[in-house]
Write a structure and sequence with these properties.
The protein has 158 residues and is mainly α. The chain has 5 helices and 3 strands; from the N terminus they run ααβααββα. It has one domain: Glutaredoxin, CATH 3.40.30. It is globular.
Length: 158
Amino acid sequence: VSCALAKDAGKKETKETTTNPKLPQTLSRGWGDQLIWTQTYEEALFRAKHSNKPLMIIHHLDDCPHSQALKKVFAENKDIQKLAEKFILLNLVYETTDKNLSPDGQYVPRVLFIDPSLTVRADITGRYSNRLYAYEPSDISLLYSNMQKALKLLKTEL
């Protein structure tokens, strides 16, 4: 059964990448080259709303050692990568003008979830009280469970 599923999953990815050839994989910036990443915040909001998928935004900087460490663990974690396929994904190396994306300040790395009604899920937080949306490499299992929570809330609330 798993072989058949794996084959189907492979076909699905190919189909998606051929229907979306305009997305260069450099948009992943190393967070998961096989995942489909959106280019802009506006595009991500549009796609989340129209696909009924939650949006996951990762704010990071190329020269930040904390961002780099989280990126490495995120990209190498097979469970995270698989679950990430259920999201509209955006990673930003700049701040947006939307103040909703920095509810407790502008720091990196920070991960926020937005549901398809375009509501920032401020209730899905990491383990730090002074940086609610920050994750360290050691928090990867918490990030995974928060991703599951974002998907679960999607089903129960919408």
